[in-house]
Design goal:
Blueprint (H helix, E strand, L loop, with lengths): L14 E4 L2 E7 L4 E7 L13 E8 L1 E6 L2 E5 L4 E4 L5 E6 L4 E8 L18
Antiparallel strand pairs: 1-2, 2-3, 3-9, 4-7, 4-9, 5-6, 5-8
Amino acid sequence: MSSTRAYNWTDMPREQVRPGVSRSGFRGDGALMVMNWLEPGMEKKPHSHPFEQLAYVVQGRVRFEIGDDIVEVGPGEVVRIPPDVVHCGEAIGDEVAMNLDVFAPARADYDHLTSYQDEDFN
């Protein structure tokens, strides 16, 4: 195994999901973190997946729609999104929101976000 390395979110490869939404990923053996940058005016995309998701807001404010619930989350706050529940989030206010999602187990469909780490697991 390679030596332990530290990474900075601003230096990691970033994927443009759609206008106003971008993300970067970091994984371990059994969990995945995804940092999302949400710009004011971004389009919402309600969706669901079989993964439990924990969303921690780092900066800005995010309005999450989780099933029938709507909750506004600010810096330092965290919310749980259960598996298979339709949900979405959007930046509210004038500032770019950053929210960190944690998925366990790690999502194979997001492996492309963490390919820069491949040598860390050899």
